[in-house]
Amino acid sequence: MRHVIRATLLLVAGHFTMALEGKPASGRRAVQGSLAHASKAGPASLEARCRISLARIDVGERKFQDALTTLKAPALDG
């Protein structure tokens, strides 16, 4: 399970970097896909990291309300 978590974290980091390098739509879609996977199969910490990455993309695009919505997701069970 740990190798899956590490691989997913690396993918999220790569997608987040893609968003910062001028491809926010592609990066956002990729992180959203990782979030969907983490929500179903990953630990709560992985889902939280995905949500933080999405919120950072939103802030970078000055979509502050979207960032807040992303971070106000249902409470995560640890």
Describe this structure in words.
The protein is mainly α. It has four helices and no strands. The protein is globular.
- Provide the succession of SSEs: HHHH
Q: How many helix segments? A: 4
Shape descriptor reads globular
Overall pLDDT: 77
Q: What is the C-alpha radius of gyration, as a whole number of Å?
A: 12 Å
Quick summary:
The chain has 4 helices and no strands.
Question: How would the blueprint of this fold be written?
Answer:
Elements: H1 2-20, H2 24-41, H3 44-60, H4 64-71
Characteristic terms for this protein:
79% helix, 78 residues, mainly alpha
